[in-house]
Amino acid sequence: MKRVTGHYEPANTAGESFKAFVPNPLPPDPPIDWAPKLQGLMEKANQAVGRLDGLAHSLPDISIFLYSYIRKEAVLSSQIEGTQSSLSDLLLFEDKETPGVPLDDVQEVSNYVAAMNHGLKRLKGGFPLSLRLIKEIHSVLLTKGRGNTKMPGEFRRSQNWIGGSRPGNASFVPPPPNAVLTCLGDLEKFLHEPKEKVPVLVKAALAHVQFETIHPFLDGNGRLGRLLITLLLCNEGVLTEPILYLSLYFKTHRNEYYERLGAVRTHGDWEGWMEYFLEGVSGTAGSASDSAKKILGLFKKDQEKVSKLGRASESALKVHEFMKKRPLVSTATIADKLKVTYPTANNALGHLEKLGIVKEFTGRKRNRLFSYHSFMEILNKGTEPIR
Q1: Which of 10, 361, 363, 365 has its CA 20 to 30 A from that of 221?
Q2: Which of 72, 75, 74 is nearest to 84 (CA)?
């Protein structure tokens, strides 16, 4: 189906004339054609998300998973924008005892974690998912490092573009600055549509495209647009906890991602985008469920090993419990956080190392760093930087 999803407005920047795309308000008109295949994908995605949310309820301590999942998402979403940071880089950066981690990229990833946590906290406190909250989250996202000169927390007042060196040779030019607030106002109204009128997964899929098309900030649009998906699912009650993230899917299928976004703008192909998005939700929710089960099995197996240590088991179990949340950490940090002496922390890590649960990876005698390596292997899946 060919439909018009917006119009082009003539614009001028630095003496160069070009055309900027202004999207029509959501929902699409004419409506999305829910052919049998698309309906089937919708049912499958809803079931996968429901199973994942049910699993989250059954976990003994959801905070263990959230700590790692949020950081994995931050790494992946930032990698799509070109950063080279790994999950290990981020965890080392967060361990204040660890010097020498590459700063610019990892600061960007750390900002993403802070922005996500800020948005989730505000929503849990009853604050509406709104333009004001989006600006707050953007302010946190760009607060330090690269991008802190790109108007953090403020919608753009100048023209931006995607691809190319200027609007005239860009692959896509978003709305001119004088149209941004109108487009965003329409998007905010759509975000507040009741789920009876617009199913939540449909709302998340359409809102993501619309946000990326408006590109309302000078920097950080991609990361914030991906974050908006998870915030919306949590805000609408589809997810009790933020345990579903699509950045790995978008990263793995990034060429198709950009093609699908472009096809919406040029041909009104919302059906193609919905198919891509719903397949991503199903696959990602299934993978997240599988990973959570693997992690639970690993924790149980290792805990049983540690319990057989005898007198040494008490402190070793405490360190094992801590490393479920912080799988890459220094001896000094463990001593500080668990309120034990450095030798006690060191001895406990030594026991875990002999059991094959943790590995020391610096080779140093001082300022040693340990990794819960089997856990990290599960978490690291898909987080290799894009080259």
Answers
A1: 10
A2: 75
> In the beta sheet, which residues pair with residue 329?
370
Strands (E), 136-270: none
Q: What does the CA dihedral 99, 146, 117, 370 come to, rounded to 10 degrees?
A: -20
Q: Pick from 285, 296, 326: which is nearest to 93 by CA?
A: 326
User: Distance between CA 89 and CA 105 in Å, rounded?
Assistant: 9
Question: Is residue 210 within 8 Å of residue 190, measured between CB atoms?
Answer: yes
Residues of the chain with pLDDT under 50: none
Predicted model pTM = 0.90
Query: Domains in the chain, ordered, with CATH?
Result: 6-290 (1.10.3290.10), 308-379 (1.10.10.10)
C-alpha to C-alpha distance for 62 and 70, rounded to whole angstroms: 12
- Given this model, what pLDDT does residue 81 score? 79
Summarised one tens digit per residue, pLDDT across range 115-157 is 999 999 999 999 999 999 999 999 999 987 666 777 899 999 9
Amino acid at position 252, single letter:
T
Token pair in block for residue 50: 């429901």
Secondary-structure breakdown of the chain: helix, strand, coil percentages, each rounded to the nearest 5: 60, 5, 35
Task: Map residue 40 onto helix, strand or coil.
Answer: helix
Listed residue (58, 11, 303) closest to 180, CA to CA: 11
On the question of a cis peptide bond just before residue 27, with omega within 30 degrees of 0, the verdict is: yes
Identify the sign of the CA torsion 165, 170, 171, 172: positive
CB 195 within 8 A of CB 235: no
189-222 residue pLDDT tens: 999 999 999 999 999 999 999 999 999 999 999 9
